[in-house]
Amino acid sequence: MNLHLAVLLVYAAVLMGVGLWIGRRVRSSTDFFVAGRRLGPSLLFSTMLAANIGAGSTVAAAGLGYADGLSAWWWVGSAGLGSIVLAGWIGPRIRRIAAEQGLHTLGDYLEYRFGEQVRATITVLLWMGTLAILAAQIIGIGWILNVVVGLPPWLGCLIGGGVVIVYFTAGGLLTAAWVNAVQLVVLLAGFVVALPLTVASAGGWDAIQAATQGVDDYWNVWQGGSSGWFYLAMLGPAFIISPGLLQKTYGARDDRTVRLGVGLNAAVLLVFAALPPLLGMIARAVEPGLDNPELALPTLLMEALPPAVGALGLAAIFSAEVSSSDAILFMLATSLSQDLYRRYVDPDASDRQILRVARRAAVAGGVLGTGLAVGAASMVSVLGLFYNLLTVSLFVPVLGGLYTRRVGSAEAMGAIAGGVGTYVAVAVFAAGEPVLGMTPAMIGLLSALAGCVLTAGARARSGAPLR
Protein backbone atom coordinates (compact mmCIF):
# COMPACT_ATOMS: atom_id res chain seq x y z
CA MET A 1 0.00 0.00 0.00
CA ASN A 2 1.49 3.41 -0.99
CA LEU A 3 1.42 6.53 1.21
CA HIS A 4 -1.20 8.29 -0.90
CA LEU A 5 -3.71 5.45 -0.57
CA ALA A 6 -3.01 5.03 3.16
CA VAL A 7 -3.70 8.72 3.82
CA LEU A 8 -6.94 8.65 1.83
CA LEU A 9 -8.21 5.52 3.60
CA VAL A 10 -7.43 6.88 7.06
CA TYR A 11 -9.01 10.21 6.17
CA ALA A 12 -12.16 8.52 4.85
CA ALA A 13 -12.43 6.53 8.08
CA VAL A 14 -12.11 9.74 10.14
CA LEU A 15 -14.90 11.43 8.17
CA MET A 16 -17.24 8.49 8.69
CA GLY A 17 -16.32 8.31 12.38
CA VAL A 18 -17.04 12.01 12.96
CA GLY A 19 -20.31 11.69 11.07
CA LEU A 20 -21.50 8.71 13.09
CA TRP A 21 -20.49 10.38 16.36
CA ILE A 22 -22.32 13.65 15.59
CA GLY A 23 -25.26 11.68 14.22
CA ARG A 24 -26.03 10.42 17.71
CA ARG A 25 -27.28 13.92 18.55
CA VAL A 26 -29.94 13.87 15.83
CA ARG A 27 -33.30 13.13 17.39
CA SER A 28 -35.81 14.83 15.08
CA SER A 29 -36.42 15.77 11.46
CA THR A 30 -35.72 19.42 12.37
CA ASP A 31 -32.23 18.41 13.50
CA PHE A 32 -31.74 16.43 10.29
CA PHE A 33 -33.16 19.03 7.87
CA VAL A 34 -32.13 22.40 9.38
CA ALA A 35 -29.72 21.50 12.23
CA GLY A 36 -32.30 22.73 14.75
CA ARG A 37 -31.92 26.25 13.23
CA ARG A 38 -28.89 26.71 15.52
CA LEU A 39 -25.97 27.13 13.08
CA GLY A 40 -23.69 30.08 13.85
CA PRO A 41 -21.61 32.04 11.29
CA SER A 42 -18.56 29.75 11.45
CA LEU A 43 -20.45 26.49 10.89
CA LEU A 44 -22.66 28.04 8.20
CA PHE A 45 -19.53 29.37 6.46
CA SER A 46 -17.78 26.00 6.55
CA THR A 47 -20.76 23.97 5.36
CA MET A 48 -21.55 26.47 2.58
CA LEU A 49 -17.96 26.67 1.35
CA ALA A 50 -17.41 22.93 1.57
CA ALA A 51 -20.58 22.39 -0.49
CA ASN A 52 -19.43 24.92 -3.10
CA ILE A 53 -15.92 23.52 -3.49
CA GLY A 54 -16.48 20.10 -4.96
CA ALA A 55 -15.43 18.06 -7.94
CA GLY A 56 -16.53 20.81 -10.30
CA SER A 57 -14.57 23.46 -8.38
CA THR A 58 -11.36 21.41 -8.19
CA VAL A 59 -10.89 18.54 -10.65
CA ALA A 60 -13.15 19.94 -13.40
CA ALA A 61 -11.87 23.53 -12.92
CA ALA A 62 -8.27 22.34 -13.13
CA GLY A 63 -9.19 20.41 -16.28
CA LEU A 64 -10.63 23.57 -17.80
CA GLY A 65 -7.47 25.43 -16.77
CA TYR A 66 -5.37 22.72 -18.43
CA ALA A 67 -7.36 23.03 -21.68
CA ASP A 68 -8.36 26.72 -21.79
CA GLY A 69 -6.07 28.64 -19.43
CA LEU A 70 -6.75 31.50 -17.04
CA SER A 71 -10.33 32.14 -18.21
CA ALA A 72 -11.33 28.99 -16.30
CA TRP A 73 -11.42 31.33 -13.26
CA TRP A 74 -15.02 32.11 -14.19
CA TRP A 75 -16.10 28.51 -13.49
CA VAL A 76 -15.75 29.03 -9.72
CA GLY A 77 -15.61 32.82 -9.72
CA SER A 78 -19.20 32.93 -10.98
CA ALA A 79 -20.24 30.91 -7.92
CA GLY A 80 -18.56 33.52 -5.70
CA LEU A 81 -20.39 36.38 -7.44
CA GLY A 82 -23.70 34.55 -7.12
CA SER A 83 -22.99 33.90 -3.44
CA ILE A 84 -22.64 37.65 -2.82
CA VAL A 85 -26.26 38.10 -3.91
CA LEU A 86 -27.33 35.13 -1.76
CA ALA A 87 -25.54 36.57 1.29
CA GLY A 88 -26.82 40.12 1.00
CA TRP A 89 -30.37 39.75 -0.23
CA ILE A 90 -31.89 36.35 -0.98
CA GLY A 91 -30.52 34.27 1.93
CA PRO A 92 -31.60 36.46 4.88
CA ARG A 93 -35.04 37.04 3.41
CA ILE A 94 -35.85 33.39 2.71
CA ARG A 95 -34.33 32.26 6.04
CA ARG A 96 -36.66 34.62 7.89
CA ILE A 97 -39.70 33.26 6.04
CA ALA A 98 -38.57 29.68 6.68
CA ALA A 99 -38.20 30.31 10.42
CA GLU A 100 -41.57 32.07 10.69
CA GLN A 101 -43.44 29.39 8.71
CA GLY A 102 -41.52 26.32 9.95
CA LEU A 103 -40.25 25.47 6.45
CA HIS A 104 -37.64 22.74 5.94
CA THR A 105 -37.09 22.60 2.16
CA LEU A 106 -37.28 24.82 -0.90
CA GLY A 107 -40.33 22.76 -1.86
CA ASP A 108 -42.00 23.91 1.37
CA TYR A 109 -41.36 27.52 0.35
CA LEU A 110 -42.64 27.00 -3.20
CA GLU A 111 -45.91 25.50 -1.92
CA TYR A 112 -46.26 28.23 0.73
CA ARG A 113 -45.80 30.91 -1.92
CA PHE A 114 -47.27 29.36 -5.10
CA GLY A 115 -49.18 26.19 -4.28
CA GLU A 116 -48.95 22.45 -4.70
CA GLN A 117 -48.57 22.35 -8.51
CA VAL A 118 -45.39 24.43 -8.56
CA ARG A 119 -43.89 22.39 -5.75
CA ALA A 120 -44.54 19.09 -7.52
CA THR A 121 -43.16 20.33 -10.85
CA ILE A 122 -39.94 21.69 -9.38
CA THR A 123 -39.45 18.58 -7.24
CA VAL A 124 -39.42 16.33 -10.32
CA LEU A 125 -37.00 18.63 -12.19
CA LEU A 126 -34.67 18.83 -9.20
CA TRP A 127 -34.47 15.06 -8.81
CA MET A 128 -33.15 14.84 -12.38
CA GLY A 129 -30.58 17.60 -11.98
CA THR A 130 -29.55 16.62 -8.46
CA LEU A 131 -28.67 13.08 -9.46
CA ALA A 132 -26.53 14.53 -12.26
CA ILE A 133 -24.43 16.70 -9.96
CA LEU A 134 -24.10 13.93 -7.36
CA ALA A 135 -22.73 11.71 -10.12
CA ALA A 136 -20.19 14.42 -11.02
CA GLN A 137 -18.80 14.51 -7.48
CA ILE A 138 -18.53 10.73 -7.30
CA ILE A 139 -16.80 10.64 -10.70
CA GLY A 140 -14.12 12.88 -9.18
CA ILE A 141 -13.56 10.45 -6.32
CA GLY A 142 -13.31 7.55 -8.76
CA TRP A 143 -10.66 9.35 -10.80
CA ILE A 144 -8.59 10.16 -7.73
CA LEU A 145 -8.48 6.51 -6.73
CA ASN A 146 -7.75 5.55 -10.33
CA VAL A 147 -4.68 7.82 -10.45
CA VAL A 148 -3.48 6.93 -6.96
CA VAL A 149 -3.67 3.13 -7.06
CA GLY A 150 -4.95 2.24 -10.51
CA LEU A 151 -8.41 1.17 -9.36
CA PRO A 152 -10.97 1.02 -12.17
CA PRO A 153 -12.96 4.30 -12.09
CA TRP A 154 -16.21 2.41 -11.48
CA LEU A 155 -14.78 0.80 -8.34
CA GLY A 156 -13.51 4.16 -7.10
CA CYS A 157 -17.02 5.56 -7.61
CA LEU A 158 -18.50 2.77 -5.49
CA ILE A 159 -16.01 3.43 -2.66
CA GLY A 160 -16.55 7.21 -2.72
CA GLY A 161 -20.32 6.90 -2.81
CA GLY A 162 -20.23 4.53 0.16
CA VAL A 163 -18.20 6.95 2.32
CA VAL A 164 -20.62 9.83 1.72
CA ILE A 165 -23.73 7.71 2.28
CA VAL A 166 -22.46 6.47 5.66
CA TYR A 167 -21.60 9.78 7.29
CA PHE A 168 -24.43 11.88 5.85
CA THR A 169 -27.17 9.37 6.57
CA ALA A 170 -26.17 9.42 10.23
CA GLY A 171 -27.28 12.99 10.84
CA GLY A 172 -28.16 15.10 7.81
CA LEU A 173 -27.30 18.81 7.95
CA LEU A 174 -26.08 18.66 11.55
CA THR A 175 -23.56 15.92 10.70
CA ALA A 176 -22.60 17.56 7.40
CA ALA A 177 -21.89 20.92 9.07
CA TRP A 178 -19.36 19.42 11.52
CA VAL A 179 -17.78 17.05 9.00
CA ASN A 180 -17.52 19.91 6.50
CA ALA A 181 -15.54 21.94 9.05
CA VAL A 182 -12.94 19.14 9.18
CA GLN A 183 -12.94 18.81 5.40
CA LEU A 184 -12.49 22.54 4.88
CA VAL A 185 -9.30 22.70 6.92
CA VAL A 186 -7.78 19.83 4.92
CA LEU A 187 -9.04 21.22 1.61
CA LEU A 188 -7.66 24.75 1.97
CA ALA A 189 -4.38 23.59 3.52
CA GLY A 190 -3.80 21.15 0.67
CA PHE A 191 -4.28 23.74 -2.08
CA VAL A 192 -2.31 26.49 -0.34
CA VAL A 193 0.67 24.16 0.17
CA ALA A 194 0.47 22.57 -3.29
CA LEU A 195 0.48 25.74 -5.43
CA PRO A 196 3.99 27.15 -4.66
CA LEU A 197 5.55 23.69 -4.66
CA THR A 198 4.11 22.77 -8.05
CA VAL A 199 5.23 26.12 -9.47
CA ALA A 200 8.75 25.40 -8.26
CA SER A 201 8.67 21.86 -9.68
CA ALA A 202 7.70 23.30 -13.10
CA GLY A 203 10.68 25.71 -13.08
CA GLY A 204 8.81 28.87 -12.07
CA TRP A 205 6.18 31.04 -13.76
CA ASP A 206 8.47 32.00 -16.62
CA ALA A 207 8.90 28.35 -17.55
CA ILE A 208 5.13 27.75 -17.31
CA GLN A 209 4.40 30.74 -19.57
CA ALA A 210 7.04 29.63 -22.06
CA ALA A 211 5.55 26.13 -22.21
CA THR A 212 2.04 27.45 -22.92
CA GLN A 213 2.71 30.57 -25.00
CA GLY A 214 1.68 28.82 -28.20
CA VAL A 215 -1.91 28.29 -26.98
CA ASP A 216 -4.25 31.08 -28.13
CA ASP A 217 -5.67 33.26 -25.32
CA TYR A 218 -4.27 30.91 -22.68
CA TRP A 219 -3.46 33.80 -20.34
CA ASN A 220 -6.56 35.85 -21.17
CA VAL A 221 -8.77 35.99 -18.07
CA TRP A 222 -11.92 36.97 -20.00
CA GLN A 223 -12.14 34.19 -22.58
CA GLY A 224 -10.01 31.35 -23.85
CA GLY A 225 -11.01 28.12 -25.55
CA SER A 226 -14.44 27.08 -24.29
CA SER A 227 -14.13 29.00 -20.98
CA GLY A 228 -14.80 32.63 -20.11
CA TRP A 229 -17.06 35.29 -18.65
CA PHE A 230 -20.18 33.64 -20.12
CA TYR A 231 -20.03 31.06 -17.31
CA LEU A 232 -21.53 33.82 -15.16
CA ALA A 233 -24.91 33.43 -16.89
CA MET A 234 -24.96 29.68 -16.28
CA LEU A 235 -23.41 29.45 -12.81
CA GLY A 236 -24.13 32.77 -11.08
CA PRO A 237 -27.93 32.38 -10.86
CA ALA A 238 -27.60 28.70 -9.91
CA PHE A 239 -25.62 29.62 -6.79
CA ILE A 240 -28.24 32.18 -5.81
CA ILE A 241 -31.20 29.79 -5.86
CA SER A 242 -29.65 26.32 -5.39
CA PRO A 243 -32.02 24.34 -3.14
CA GLY A 244 -29.13 22.81 -1.18
CA LEU A 245 -27.62 26.22 -0.42
CA LEU A 246 -30.93 27.89 0.36
CA GLN A 247 -31.83 25.06 2.72
CA LYS A 248 -28.51 25.49 4.51
CA THR A 249 -29.48 29.10 5.23
CA TYR A 250 -32.65 27.73 6.87
CA GLY A 251 -30.33 26.26 9.52
CA ALA A 252 -28.87 29.67 10.47
CA ARG A 253 -29.92 31.08 13.82
CA ASP A 254 -30.54 34.63 12.47
CA ASP A 255 -30.14 36.93 9.45
CA ARG A 256 -26.75 38.21 10.63
CA THR A 257 -25.45 34.64 10.55
CA VAL A 258 -26.50 34.32 6.90
CA ARG A 259 -24.83 37.59 5.90
CA LEU A 260 -21.59 36.74 7.69
CA GLY A 261 -21.38 33.02 6.92
CA VAL A 262 -22.48 33.15 3.28
CA GLY A 263 -20.61 36.42 2.66
CA LEU A 264 -17.31 35.00 3.88
CA ASN A 265 -17.98 31.93 1.73
CA ALA A 266 -18.34 34.25 -1.29
CA ALA A 267 -15.09 36.06 -0.53
CA VAL A 268 -13.12 32.83 -0.23
CA LEU A 269 -14.66 31.47 -3.45
CA LEU A 270 -13.54 34.55 -5.40
CA VAL A 271 -9.93 33.97 -4.29
CA PHE A 272 -10.01 30.18 -4.46
CA ALA A 273 -11.37 30.36 -8.03
CA ALA A 274 -7.85 31.01 -9.33
CA LEU A 275 -6.13 28.04 -7.65
CA PRO A 276 -7.47 25.01 -9.60
CA PRO A 277 -7.09 26.70 -13.03
CA LEU A 278 -3.52 27.70 -12.15
CA LEU A 279 -2.75 24.15 -11.07
CA GLY A 280 -4.25 22.91 -14.34
CA MET A 281 -2.04 25.33 -16.27
CA ILE A 282 1.01 24.10 -14.36
CA ALA A 283 0.01 20.53 -15.23
CA ARG A 284 -0.14 21.57 -18.92
CA ALA A 285 3.48 22.72 -18.67
CA VAL A 286 4.64 19.62 -16.78
CA GLU A 287 2.46 16.95 -18.45
CA PRO A 288 1.40 18.39 -21.85
CA GLY A 289 0.14 15.14 -23.35
CA LEU A 290 -2.74 14.13 -21.07
CA ASP A 291 -5.59 12.50 -22.99
CA ASN A 292 -8.14 13.54 -20.37
CA PRO A 293 -7.73 17.14 -19.04
CA GLU A 294 -9.86 16.29 -15.98
CA LEU A 295 -7.01 14.06 -14.77
CA ALA A 296 -4.66 17.08 -14.69
CA LEU A 297 -4.99 17.83 -10.99
CA PRO A 298 -4.58 14.34 -9.47
CA THR A 299 -1.76 13.60 -11.93
CA LEU A 300 0.09 16.81 -10.98
CA LEU A 301 -0.20 16.06 -7.26
CA MET A 302 1.07 12.53 -7.76
CA GLU A 303 3.95 13.32 -10.13
CA ALA A 304 5.21 16.81 -9.22
CA LEU A 305 5.19 16.81 -5.42
CA PRO A 306 6.93 14.89 -2.62
CA PRO A 307 4.74 11.96 -1.50
CA ALA A 308 3.71 13.52 1.83
CA VAL A 309 2.66 16.82 0.23
CA GLY A 310 1.00 15.04 -2.68
CA ALA A 311 -0.99 12.93 -0.24
CA LEU A 312 -2.22 16.12 1.50
CA GLY A 313 -3.24 17.55 -1.86
CA LEU A 314 -5.12 14.40 -2.81
CA ALA A 315 -6.85 14.44 0.57
CA ALA A 316 -7.87 18.03 -0.20
CA ILE A 317 -9.46 16.95 -3.49
CA PHE A 318 -11.13 14.01 -1.75
CA SER A 319 -12.51 16.49 0.80
CA ALA A 320 -13.92 18.63 -1.97
CA GLU A 321 -15.65 15.73 -3.64
CA VAL A 322 -17.27 14.20 -0.57
CA SER A 323 -18.29 17.56 0.95
CA SER A 324 -20.20 18.52 -2.19
CA SER A 325 -21.66 15.02 -2.39
CA ASP A 326 -23.21 15.35 1.06
CA ALA A 327 -24.78 18.66 -0.01
CA ILE A 328 -26.42 16.87 -2.92
CA LEU A 329 -27.63 14.01 -0.74
CA PHE A 330 -29.06 16.68 1.55
CA MET A 331 -31.20 17.98 -1.32
CA LEU A 332 -32.32 14.50 -2.33
CA ALA A 333 -33.13 13.29 1.17
CA THR A 334 -35.08 16.38 2.20
CA SER A 335 -36.95 16.59 -1.09
CA LEU A 336 -38.00 12.94 -1.14
CA SER A 337 -39.02 12.80 2.51
CA GLN A 338 -40.58 16.25 2.94
CA ASP A 339 -41.72 17.21 -0.57
CA LEU A 340 -42.94 13.76 -1.63
CA TYR A 341 -43.55 11.47 1.34
CA ARG A 342 -44.97 13.91 3.88
CA ARG A 343 -46.84 15.95 1.28
CA TYR A 344 -48.38 13.21 -0.88
CA VAL A 345 -47.89 9.76 0.67
CA ASP A 346 -48.50 10.16 4.41
CA PRO A 347 -49.39 13.71 5.56
CA ASP A 348 -49.95 12.40 9.11
CA ALA A 349 -46.53 10.74 9.40
CA SER A 350 -44.81 11.18 12.74
CA ASP A 351 -41.53 13.04 13.10
CA ARG A 352 -39.72 9.74 13.69
CA GLN A 353 -41.21 8.32 10.46
CA ILE A 354 -40.05 11.35 8.46
CA LEU A 355 -36.54 11.04 9.88
CA ARG A 356 -36.46 7.36 8.93
CA VAL A 357 -37.69 8.12 5.40
CA ALA A 358 -35.08 10.89 5.03
CA ARG A 359 -32.27 8.50 5.93
CA ARG A 360 -33.56 5.85 3.53
CA ALA A 361 -33.91 8.50 0.82
CA ALA A 362 -30.27 9.48 1.36
CA VAL A 363 -29.19 5.88 0.86
CA ALA A 364 -31.37 5.46 -2.23
CA GLY A 365 -30.17 8.76 -3.72
CA GLY A 366 -26.55 7.86 -3.04
CA VAL A 367 -26.94 4.50 -4.74
CA LEU A 368 -28.64 6.03 -7.81
CA GLY A 369 -26.04 8.81 -8.07
CA THR A 370 -23.22 6.29 -7.82
CA GLY A 371 -24.81 4.21 -10.56
CA LEU A 372 -25.09 7.26 -12.82
CA ALA A 373 -21.45 8.15 -12.10
CA VAL A 374 -20.30 4.74 -13.32
CA GLY A 375 -21.83 5.38 -16.73
CA ALA A 376 -21.34 9.16 -17.14
CA ALA A 377 -19.01 10.71 -19.71
CA SER A 378 -17.46 13.66 -17.86
CA MET A 379 -17.96 15.96 -14.89
CA VAL A 380 -18.37 19.15 -16.91
CA SER A 381 -21.20 17.64 -18.97
CA VAL A 382 -23.28 16.48 -16.00
CA LEU A 383 -22.56 19.62 -13.95
CA GLY A 384 -23.71 21.76 -16.86
CA LEU A 385 -27.02 19.87 -16.97
CA PHE A 386 -27.62 20.47 -13.25
CA TYR A 387 -26.72 24.18 -13.22
CA ASN A 388 -28.76 24.92 -16.33
CA LEU A 389 -31.86 23.18 -14.98
CA LEU A 390 -31.56 25.12 -11.73
CA THR A 391 -31.20 28.44 -13.48
CA VAL A 392 -34.01 28.16 -16.02
CA SER A 393 -36.54 26.56 -13.69
CA LEU A 394 -36.01 28.26 -10.33
CA PHE A 395 -34.41 31.68 -10.75
CA VAL A 396 -37.48 33.65 -11.86
CA PRO A 397 -40.04 31.95 -9.53
CA VAL A 398 -37.87 32.22 -6.39
CA LEU A 399 -36.87 35.86 -6.90
CA GLY A 400 -40.33 36.83 -8.09
CA GLY A 401 -41.92 35.12 -5.09
CA LEU A 402 -39.59 36.88 -2.66
CA TYR A 403 -39.85 40.41 -4.03
CA THR A 404 -43.28 40.92 -5.57
CA ARG A 405 -46.81 39.78 -4.82
CA ARG A 406 -47.67 40.01 -8.53
CA VAL A 407 -46.11 36.63 -9.22
CA GLY A 408 -48.52 33.84 -8.38
CA SER A 409 -48.88 30.15 -9.22
CA ALA A 410 -49.77 30.73 -12.88
CA GLU A 411 -46.83 33.08 -13.39
CA ALA A 412 -44.43 30.64 -11.73
CA MET A 413 -45.62 27.79 -13.94
CA GLY A 414 -45.32 30.05 -17.00
CA ALA A 415 -41.72 30.81 -16.07
CA ILE A 416 -40.88 27.13 -15.50
CA ALA A 417 -42.50 26.01 -18.76
CA GLY A 418 -40.92 28.81 -20.79
CA GLY A 419 -37.47 28.39 -19.28
CA VAL A 420 -37.17 24.61 -19.32
CA GLY A 421 -38.95 24.13 -22.66
CA THR A 422 -36.84 26.72 -24.47
CA TYR A 423 -33.60 25.54 -22.88
CA VAL A 424 -34.19 21.92 -23.93
CA ALA A 425 -35.25 22.92 -27.45
CA VAL A 426 -32.27 25.21 -28.03
CA ALA A 427 -29.81 22.77 -26.45
CA VAL A 428 -31.01 19.98 -28.75
CA PHE A 429 -31.27 22.13 -31.87
CA ALA A 430 -27.86 23.78 -31.41
CA ALA A 431 -26.15 20.75 -29.82
CA GLY A 432 -25.30 22.85 -26.76
CA GLU A 433 -23.54 25.55 -28.78
CA PRO A 434 -24.28 29.32 -28.45
CA VAL A 435 -26.98 30.86 -30.64
CA LEU A 436 -26.50 34.51 -31.60
CA GLY A 437 -23.81 34.75 -28.95
CA MET A 438 -26.02 33.35 -26.17
CA THR A 439 -25.79 29.95 -24.54
CA PRO A 440 -28.91 27.74 -24.25
CA ALA A 441 -29.01 28.61 -20.52
CA MET A 442 -29.05 32.36 -21.24
CA ILE A 443 -31.87 31.93 -23.76
CA GLY A 444 -33.76 29.69 -21.32
CA LEU A 445 -33.45 32.27 -18.52
CA LEU A 446 -34.77 35.05 -20.77
CA SER A 447 -37.61 32.77 -21.85
CA ALA A 448 -38.47 32.06 -18.21
CA LEU A 449 -38.78 35.80 -17.57
CA ALA A 450 -40.86 36.20 -20.74
CA GLY A 451 -43.09 33.29 -19.73
CA CYS A 452 -43.72 34.88 -16.34
CA VAL A 453 -44.51 38.31 -17.82
CA LEU A 454 -46.75 36.97 -20.59
CA THR A 455 -48.69 34.78 -18.15
CA ALA A 456 -49.19 37.75 -15.83
CA GLY A 457 -50.49 39.82 -18.74
CA ALA A 458 -52.89 37.10 -19.86
CA ARG A 459 -54.20 36.64 -16.34
CA ALA A 460 -54.74 40.39 -15.93
CA ARG A 461 -56.63 40.63 -19.23
CA SER A 462 -58.87 37.72 -18.29
CA GLY A 463 -59.60 39.17 -14.86
CA ALA A 464 -58.60 35.94 -13.13
CA PRO A 465 -57.51 36.37 -9.49
CA LEU A 466 -53.87 36.07 -8.46
CA ARG A 467 -53.22 32.68 -6.83
Architecture overview:
The structure is a single chain. By secondary structure, the chain is an all-alpha fold. It has helices at residues 3-23, 29-34, 41-52, 56-68, 73-101, 106-114, 116-149, 153-201, 205-212, 231-235, 238-241, 243-250, 255-272, 275-286, 296-303, 307-345, 351-375, 379-403, 409-429, 440-462; strands at residues 223-224, 227-228. The protein is globular. The mean pLDDT is 87.
Summary?
This protein has 467 residues and is mostly helical. The protein contains 20 helices and two strands.
Question: What's the topology here?
Answer:
Layout lengths: L2 H21 L5 H6 L6 H12 L3 H13 L4 H29 L4 H9 L1 H34 L3 H49 L3 H8 L10 E2 L2 E2 L2 H5 L2 H4 L1 H8 L4 H18 L2 H12 L9 H8 L3 H39 L5 H25 L3 H25 L5 H21 L10 H23 L5
Share of residues in helices: over 70%
Radius of gyration: 22 Å
Tell me, briefly, the overall form: globular
CATH superfamily descriptor of the largest domain: Sodium/glucose cotransporter
* Highest CATH level, the class of the largest domain: Mainly Alpha
Largest sheet: 2 strands, antiparallel
Structural domain tally? 2
Number of strands: 2
Tell me the series of helices and strands, N- to C-terminal.
HHHHHHHHHEEHHHHHHHHHHH
